[in-house]
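User: I'm curious whether this sequence folds into something compact or stays loose and floppy. Could you predict its structure so I can see for myself?
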Amino acid sequence: MRKLFIFIAAMFITGSLFAGGLVTNDNQSAAWVRLPSRNASVGIDAVYYNPAGLMKLQNGFHVSVSNQSVLQTRTIKNYYSGPGGSYGLNQQTYKGTVNAPLFPSIYAAYKMDKFAFSFGFNPIGGGGGAEFKKGLPSFEMSPSDLVPLLASQGADAYRLNVYFKGSSTFMGYQGNVSYKVNDWLSVALGLRYVTAENTYKGHLTDIEVELPGGWTRADAIMNGIAASATGAAAATTGLVAAGAGSLTLAQVQGAGYITATQRAQLEGALTSFGYPAATPVVQADAIFKGAKAKYTATATLLGDQSADAAQTGSGIAPIFSVNFTPSENLNIAVKYEMATKLDLTNKTKQDLLIGFDATGTPITMFPDGSKTRNDMPAMLAVGLNYKLSSTFRVSLGGNYYFDKTADYGHKYDDDLNSATPAVHLSNKDIISRNRMTVQGGLEYNISEKLLVSCGYVFANQGANARYQSDLTYGLSTHTFGLGGAYSFTDKIQVNLGFGYTRYIGNSKNIDHILGASLYQALESYGKSTKMIGIGVDFSF
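Assistant: Here's the prediction. I'll summarize afterward.
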């Protein structure tokens, strides 16, 4: 039976919630929500977006505190229908929610004539918890196969109790030193320290099949078959020891070793396992012993299981920033972040059994102490702000993420065989094009105290079909933001923004093995994200 749980890919949780990279959040201030084109920012959120641009601040101390509340809905549809199109899943649509009521960003900078020293704190990746109250298609496909497998016994339905929840916290702690070279050029050097934690909790219990006698636990059925094979193997082992291994069961009966009733029982066991009644006893003995091992293992896999595991790690990335002001109305910024190498270590309280290797050793999902790579990629960001007038400004920019040269720890079960572990895939195998975003926005001062703004971001998909699964998928996005800011004094400004991300749906044909047959099923992926951001900026 195919592995019951496939949520090996860490990116299920650590993927970006927003219009950034596959694993990198770019929504790092309330000002971004109202104007999602901040790469050339010269405000306090430049601590993240444009550290060199901090030299445009007035001398003194500047602080920004903001939060975003985010709700994301994930929708997966799976059209698996099994042999002959008559054995599908109990449901086609699976929905999950990602809630991030607290998504804080905190920035502080002290600006002098030639230098600025700054610190930033934000959720650089992940930032929420994903909950699937009814599981996902990959959890249910194997249990659904029990119906055609047991159809000869009258099976006509299955049911199960499945739940999964995961959370992710990738926190970034960033420090920068900015320097003013001259009136039109400034530079900055920074370091970001990232602490990462993913948690996984879930269960798959009460897998049952409806037989003519009523609902029956699947593991009990498999244990019953294993017991039948055990009894048959005891008989054939004795016959082999007696020197009758080369004979058929009919010949064994003729020689007086067994009765007609015993022969019928053993031949019936052979045919139930798909072998001819005339199979020599020595071969029958191996068949029964193999069936005992197979169905005992399957019963274990179909038994109640739960997971409670966490992955933790940390890494550092250098950051380089340059800000140009070639004219009074034009500001241009370039920032390059190097990759953050992250090795996450499993800390497991309860683990999931997903199969057995060729020696019968259990294969588990989260082996305690094992490590998984989950890098954050290098990124190049460019942006410009242009003043069309004293009250009207336009912002443009883009980000380019070097996904192919990172390692996201992606794993894939190429052979769909529970006796073999999932294999690691290089990012070059799962990324067709590096992720990139294109962004633009407008900002208008209605008065000295009030301004309004809006903006748009497009992000390409980048990931290919080998990356996509019901647990881990990357989609192209359209993000829209609008809002405004109000200055109570020249030292205090409040930002308020509303954002929405629409994802362009994607689909693929997934492979599923049942017995010796390969079946393909269409699976589609969708998301939507809503966010509200509010923050206060102070200057002293």
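Summary: The chain has one domain: 11-220+293-539. The chain is about 20% helix and 50% strand.
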